[in-house]
Task: inverse folding
C-alpha cells in the first residue's frame, strides 16, 4: 500500500469514529457498546494494512534501486561534411545526415558494441555505394536519391542494429563547383564552335561541289535564286562563267568568252593607238575573272562583301590543292592588315 492509500485509510477511520461517537451520545449507548466501538476502530485500519501487504508480497531490500528509472538510450547521431567519392577522381561529395538506429534482439553471448559507430559506418557504406557511380555535376539530384535510399530501416552487417538516415544533404566543395561550371562553359562553347565549323564546311562543299561545279550548275542555281528571271540570268551568264572558273582554278571556256564583260581598258579609242599584238597581251588570271565578277555584281572597292566572297572562294580552292590561286585571291581582295609600330622612344623625346 502506498503512502497516499495509508493516509486515506486513517482519515476515513477517524471520520467514522466521530460519526459513531455522535450517534452513541445521542442514542445513549451502554458501556459495552463503547468498548466494542473502540476495538472496531482500532482493528479496521490494521486489517486493511495487513491485507494490502499480503497482496503486494514482500518488499525487496533493493526496492529503491529497482524503482530508479533507467537512463534513456540515445539512438541518433549527426554526421557532417563526410567526403564520399564520386564517379570522377578528386571530386568528392560532402555528405551530412542524421543517423538513427534501433537494436535487434541479440543472444546472451553477443559482444558489446558501440551502436553509434556501427550505425554511422552502415549509413556511409550505403551512401558510398551510390555516390561513387554518380557524376559530381548532379549533386542535388544525387541528394534526393540518397534521401530515398537511406530512409528505410535496414540491418547492419553484424545484425545487431537496424539503421536509417534522415535530413540528408549532399554538396560539393566551393572550388570544385567553380571548376565544374567552367568545364560546362567550355563544353558549350566547343559545341557551338563545332556546329559553326561544320556549317561552314558544309557551305563550302555545297558551293564547290554542287553550285560552282561547272557553269551549268551555277546557272541553274542563279536562276533559282532570281525567281526564274531568265533575262537576268542570261545577262549574268558571263559573271557566272568567271566565278565558276575562279572557283575551279580554270580558264573560262571558249564558248562562253563572248558573254564576258569587256574590261574598260579595251575601249575602241585605245585599240586604234599602236596597240601591241594580241599575242603579247597577258592572259586574264583567276583573280582578274573574279574582279570582273565582283564589278558586275556591283561590289565596288571598299565593299566588305568583296573580302568575304574572296575568302569563301579561296577556301573552296584550297580543298582542291590549288593554294597558289587561293593565296592570289586573298592577297588581292583580302590583304592582311598592316600594323605600324609606334616608336615609344621618339614619342617620349617629343614629349620632352
Result:
Amino acid at each position: 500500500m502506498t503512502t497516499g492509500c495509508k493516509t486515506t485509510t486513517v482519515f476515513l477511520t477517524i471520520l467514522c469514529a466521530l460519526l459513531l461517537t455522535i450517534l452513541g451520545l445521542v442514542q445513549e449507548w451502554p458501556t459495552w457498546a463503547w468498548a466494542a466501538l473502540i476495538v472496531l476502530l482500532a482493528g479496521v485500519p490494521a486489517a486493511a494494512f495487513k491485507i494490502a501487504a499480503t497482496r503486494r508480497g514482500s518488499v525487496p531490500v533493493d526496492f529503491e534501486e529497482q524503482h530508479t528509472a533507467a537512463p534513456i538510450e540515445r539512438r541518433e547521431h549527426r554526421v557532417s561534411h563526410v567526403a564520399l567519392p564520386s564517379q570522377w577522381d578528386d571530386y568528392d561529395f560532402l555528405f551530412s545526415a542524421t543517423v538513427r538506429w534501433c537494436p535487434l534482439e541479440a543472444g546472451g553471448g553477443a559482444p558489446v558494441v558501440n551502436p553509434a559507430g556501427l550505425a554511422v559506418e552502415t549509413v556511409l557504406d550505403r551512401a558510398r555505394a551510390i555516390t561513387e557511380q554518380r557524376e559530381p555535376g548532379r549533386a542535388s539530384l544525387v541528394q534526393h536519391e540518397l534521401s530515398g535510399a537511406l530512409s528505410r530501416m535496414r540491418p547492419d552487417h553484424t545484425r545487431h542494429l537496424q539503421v536509417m538516415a534522415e535530413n540528408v544533404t549532399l554538396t560539393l566543395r566551393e572550388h570544385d563547383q567553380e571548376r565544374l561550371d567552367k568545364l560546362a562553359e567550355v563544353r558549350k562553347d566547343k559545341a557551338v564552335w563545332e556546329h559553326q565549323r561544320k556549317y561552314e564546311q558544309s557551305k563550302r562543299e555545297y558551293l564547290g561541289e554542287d553550285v560552282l561545279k561547272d557553269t551549268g550548275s551555277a546557272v541553274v542555281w542563279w536562276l533559282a535564286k532570281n525567281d526564274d528571271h531568265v533575262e537576268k540570268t542570261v545577262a549574268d551568264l558571263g559573271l557566272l562563267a568567271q566565278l565558276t572558273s575562279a572557283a575551279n582554278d580554270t580558264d573560262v571556256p571558249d564558248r562562253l568568252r563572248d558573254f564576258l564583260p569587256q574590261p574598260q581598258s579595251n575601249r575602241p579609242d585605245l585599240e586604234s593607238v599602236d596597240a601591241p599584238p594580241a599575242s603579247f597581251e597577258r592572259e586574264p588570271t583567276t583573280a582578274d575573272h573574279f574582279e570582273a565578277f565582283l564589278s558586275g555584281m556591283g561590289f565596288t572597292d571598299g565593299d566588305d562583301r568583296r573580302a568575304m566572297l574572296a575568302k569563301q572562294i579561296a577556301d573552296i580552292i584550297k580543298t582542291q590543292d590549288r593554294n597558289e590561286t587561293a593565296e592570289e585571291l586573298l592577297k588581292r581582295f583580302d590583304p592582311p592588315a598592316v600594323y605600324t609600330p609606334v616608336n615609344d622612344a621618339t614619342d617620349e623625346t617629343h614629349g620632352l
DSSP finds 14 helices and four strands in the chain.
